[in-house]
Amino acid sequence: MDSLLAIDVGGGTQDILLYEQGKPLENCLQLVLPAPTVLVGRKINLATSQGKAIFLFGRTMGGGSSTKAIKEHLAAGFPVYATTESALTIHDNLQKVQEMGVILTADKPEEAEAVRLADLDLLMLEQILAKVGYTLPAGIAVAVQDHGYSPCQSNRVFRFGLWEKFMSDGGKLPALAYRTVPAVFTRMQAIKQDVPDALLMDTCGAALLGSLSDSVVKEAAQKGIVAVLNLGNQHSFAALVHQDHVLGLFEHHTAKMTAEKAREYLERLCRATLTNQEVQDDGGHGCIPPVKPVRAELIVVTGPRRALLSAGDYYFAAPQGNMMLMGCFGLIAAAQIV
User: Fold this and answer.
1) Percent of the chain's residues with pLDDT above 70
2) CA separation for the pair 324, 338 (Å, rounded)
């Protein structure tokens, strides 16, 4: 692997690292840009302010800011047209999408403003790289949070079922990365349409692998058990790791987390007393406790919302001194083992 463009697509930012073998990571090209959902949301908001109809086309992508802007556009009384593929961004059940007021069509109405949906904008990245004398490398790795295709079931519950399958299959870290993407992961499949050879990961898995590339965390995980909590802009994910195995985990929404709740959840995950039903009832995705209580040799906190917890009480992982590229470091690590 001579070079790899690693792109970690989050809810607030997309974090980008152009890894070049043999070059110190500190000297590799690094970017933190607004997330694709944020950029799409801004385009839709502009059309709303101008009173224009919009036509959504392109790929299935993440929701968040983009879906919020679509709903606000409809609420303002302006038409929303969409292709079938792009409409799946709003909901996996297209009947529900139509019930919201979205008009499905393959062709752009003349009066509508076209808005392309995609988690990966290769043209934009190519143009940015060209400005500083780089070209797109052959190797591309992307992380997105993929809830899976779930037209009839809560995507929150369905997504956690995918974590349950990962754990029942052994919970091995290499299984978090995909060269061949399972059909259920629609966001990853959409990226594969544009970059067939791309390596794909879920953002939570990428952050977990990235934290383990921190030398302090890596050493602790080899000797014993580490508890890793990634506080993202939208989702919080915690895992107990020993060597290359995940022993237990939980996933929640960061907006519902407080410092007290985060501490309690981590402690109870280690004691194997935090239950799946409890986390789901609190609006989170779920929990898979370890089969027996464990003692964490090191408690690691990372993610853009890490300030929720005090650095004095936990180890704040930052490989190469850059926490925002945690997912990118995880993608690089995955590319070397998968």
Assistant:
1) 100
2) 23
Q: What is the 3-state secondary structure (H, E, C) of 41-55?
A: HHHHHHHHHCCCCEE
Per the CB < 8 A criterion, the answer to whether 298 and 217 are in contact is: yes
Quote the DSSP letter at residue 322.
-
Cα(232)–Cα(236) distance, rounded to whole angstroms?
6
pLDDT in tens, 212-246: 999 999 999 999 999 999 998 888 999 999 999 99
Helix orientation angle between 65-75 and 36-49, rounded to the nearest 10 degrees: 20
d(CA 206, CA 332): 9
Residue 27's SS3 state is helix
The first and second tokens of residue 25, run together, are: 């990571």
User: Is the pLDDT at 4 greater than 80, yes or no?
Assistant: yes
d(CA 94, CA 153) in angstroms, rounded, equals 13
Q: Tell me, what amino acid is at 322? A: N
| Token pair 């853009």: residue | 304
CB 143 within 8 A of CB 198: no
Q: Percentages helix, strand, coil for the chain, rounded to the nearest 5?
A: 40, 25, 35
Measure the CA dihedral 183/164/268/284, to 10°.
50
Measured CA to CA, the distance from residue 243 to residue 270 in angstroms comes to 16
Residue pair 79/103 in contact by the 8 Å Cβ criterion: yes
Domain definitions of the chain by residue range: 3-32+141-337, 36-117
What crossing angle do the helices spanning 203-211 and 326-337 adopt, rounded to 10°?
Answer: 90
CA angle, 202 then 204 then 205, to 5°: 65
How far apart (Å, rounded) are the C-alpha atoms in residues 187 and 35? Answer: 14
Tokens of 328: 């990118």
Which helix (H) or strand (E) element contains residue 178? strand 177-178
Which fold is adopted by the domain 36-117?
A: Rossmann fold (3.40.50)
Q: Beta strand pairing status for 226-231 and 235-242?
A: antiparallel
